[in-house]
Amino acid sequence: MARIGLYFGTFNPIHIGHLAIANHMVEFSDLDEVWLIITPQSPFKTKKTLLENHHRYQMVYEATKEYPKLKPSKVEFELPQPNYTINTLVHLEEKYGKRHQFSLIMGEDNLKGFHKWKNYEVILENHDIYVYPRITDDINEHQFKGQSKIHVVDAPIMEVSSTFIRKQHKAGKNIRALLPDAVWKYMDEMNFYR
Ligand SMILES: Nc1ncnc2c1ncn2[C@@H]1O[C@H](COP(=O)(O)OP(=O)(O)OP(=O)(O)O)[C@@H](O)[C@H]1O
Ligand SMILES: O=C(O)c1ccc[n+]([C@@H]2O[C@H](COP(=O)([O-])O)[C@@H](O)[C@H]2O)c1
């Protein structure tokens, strides 16, 4: 059975933080592959400044094409919106349950709000969660400390976000170093976030 890490994100756009996290998880855990799942509509996010699905997919494709263990996924494109992770997990279990064992990957900010996710107890009962450290405004400790299914990895913090990239790019700053080169080229050619 292959062990697959599912890394859900809006990826608007994918940045070097996302890529480093996906690569760290696949290299330093027992995961065989990481699938980057581009979410059409995250439950708690507004659609403002959100690029179309196929553009966000293309950027994830560009970022990962030279990383054989990282795979972009369109699985949520055909599922109802907003995209609740539990629904996607059920869908993937039906499709691949006999061949693959699925874990989740998320940043620490997502773990802090995880108790608000649809059916989070069910997710936690059935899947391991790998958490990448991140600085968040919310200074409270997360309530899942000590939970055996949650693995907070020891890895260097990266202070980069898609919001920062969109904002600074619009303001005319050079944010090229925060994006994989092929992503920067696509974003620039397509005039995104101007
Ligand atoms: N720098 C980072 N460090 C740790 N986790 C991160 C980082 N950037 C993104 N993540 C995690 O990656 C996943 C997908 O993130 P998302 O696509 O929302 O990116 P984002 O940079 O947080 O975007 P935005 O600024 O638009 O909210 C989430 O689980 C998030 O916690
Ligand atoms: O299932 C939920 O209730 C749920 C609530 C919030 C976020 N998520 C997932 O977490 C992923 C990262 O969330 P976000 O909002 O930080 O982009 C996003 O792609 C969603 O699939 C899922």
TrEMBL record:
Catalyzed reactions: nicotinate beta-D-ribonucleotide + ATP + H(+) = deamido-NAD(+) + diphosphate
EC number: 2.7.7.18
Biological-process GO terms, alphabetical: NAD+ biosynthetic process
Domain Cytidyltransferase-like: residue ranges: 6-167
Record's keyword annotation contains Membrane: no
The keyword Translocase appears for this protein: no
GO molecular-function terms, A-Z: ATP binding; nicotinate-nucleotide adenylyltransferase activity
Record keywords, A-Z: ATP-binding, NAD, Nucleotide-binding, Nucleotidyltransferase, Pyridine nucleotide biosynthesis, Transferase
UniProt xrefs under Gene3D superfamilies: HUPs
Enzyme class label: transferase
UniProt-listed Pfam families: CTP_transf_like (PF01467)
Family: Belongs to the NadD family.
Entries under HAMAP family matching the protein: NaMN_adenylyltr (MF_00244)
Function: Catalyzes the reversible adenylation of nicotinate mononucleotide (NaMN) to nicotinic acid adenine dinucleotide (NaAD).
Name this polypeptide is given: Probable nicotinate-nucleotide adenylyltransferase
Originating species: Saonia flava
Upper taxonomic lineage: Bacteria, Pseudomonadati, Bacteroidota, Flavobacteriia, Flavobacteriales
